[in-house]
Write a structure and sequence with these properties.
Elements (H helix, E strand, L loop, with lengths): L1 H9 L11 E9 L9 E3 L3 E3 L7 E5 L9 E3 L3 E3 L4 E5 L7 E2 L3 H7 L3 H9 L3 H4 L5 E5 L6 H10 L4 E5 L2 E3 L4 E2 L6 E5 L2 E4 L5 E8 L12 E4 L2 E8 L13 E4 L1 H10 L1 E12 L1
Parallel strand pairs: 2-5, 2-17, 3-6, 4-7, 4-18, 5-8, 9-10, 10-13, 11-14, 12-15, 13-15, 14-16, 15-17, 17-18
Antiparallel strand pairs: 1-19
Length: 269
């Protein structure tokens, strides 16, 4: 028609006779729903027994009123003399066992414990678009984890098996910390292997013979370590140092999450 021809010649669209708009309000739903208040949090019992002559260094930079280095819902077993629990100024930091809230958490089913810390059931969490699942072989997965973290900043990594760093690398940074869920534990083998962020051991009892989650190695964690079950070590191996960093944890809380539609935020008119 003449009108269409004019539009093609001039490149100017004719005035619309009607218009419609569609909009959606989205918000970030945090992956981590409970903020750790200790360097190491264990829902059930903790068997702190590094090899003779070695110490497990656990430090906190939080204010004195909330500066427990370790909180456990059950008993803390092993040689407490081998645990060096300190505040940032070098003074001793509390090691708390039989914490009432954690003890109540420990009495719930594993899936329920996970949902209380992460907001949803494990099966739902793993289906999030912002969660990457990675199988970590027995020999280690340092390169694979490093690649995933660099390609998906702000994403969360679910590690099947034991998270093992077999060479000295750093995962995360104070500006872009990581959130990692490791099914069977975390082993940071060499000195210089480091995780900056929050590591959660879900203790899901994936099989009747599922082992107690473990922590071992000569590396370090800056942020927090959370075990939703018991926690133990590997025979004859050192324990990685853990330093509570509230700034790192705060960034994990705000930066790691799933974008979802806000109820009532859909507009079609």
């Amino acid at each position: 028609s003449p009108g269409h021809a004019a539009c093609l010649r001039t490149g100017v669209a004719l005035a619309p006779e009607a218009a419609a708009s569609v909009s959606m309000v989205a918000g970030r739903m945090a992956h981590l729903r409970v903020q750790p208040n200790a360097a190491v949090t264990v829902a059930q019992s903790l068997n702190a027994s590094p090899p003779s002559g070695l110490v497990w260094s656990v430090t906190t930079t939080a204010s004195p009123s909330s500066s427990a280095a370790i909180r456990a819902g059950g008993a803390i077993e092993g040689l407490l003399s081998s645990v060096q629990a300190l505040r940032a100024d070098g003074s001793p930091a509390p090691v708390v066992s039989q914490d009432p809230w954690l003890a109540a958490l420990a009495g719930k089913a594993p899936d329920r414990r996970f949902a209380m810390w992460m907001g949803v059931a494990p099966s739902v969490f793993q289906r999030y678009a912002s969660v990457v699942t990675l199988q970590c072989p027995a020999q280690g997965c340092a390169d694979a984890l490093s690649s995933v973290v660099s390609q998906r900043p702000g994403g969360t990594v679910w590690v099947r098996g034991t998270l093992r760093l077999e060479r000295p690398i750093t995962l995360g940074s104070p500006q872009e910390p990581v959130l990692i869920v490791a099914e069977e534990g975390v082993v940071l083998e060499p000195p210089g292997s480091q995780i900056v962020g929050v590591v959660v051991l879900p203790a899901l009892q994936l099989s009747p013979a599922a082992p107690t989650p473990v922590v071992a190695g000569n590396g370090s964690i800056q942020g927090a370590l959370v075990s939703l079950g018991a926690l133990g070590g590997l025979s004859g191996q050192a324990w990685p140092s853990v330093r509570f960093d509230p700034d790192v944890i705060s960034r994990v809380l705000t930066d790691h999450g799933e974008w979802v539609r806000v109820p009532g935020g859909w507009r079609d008119y």
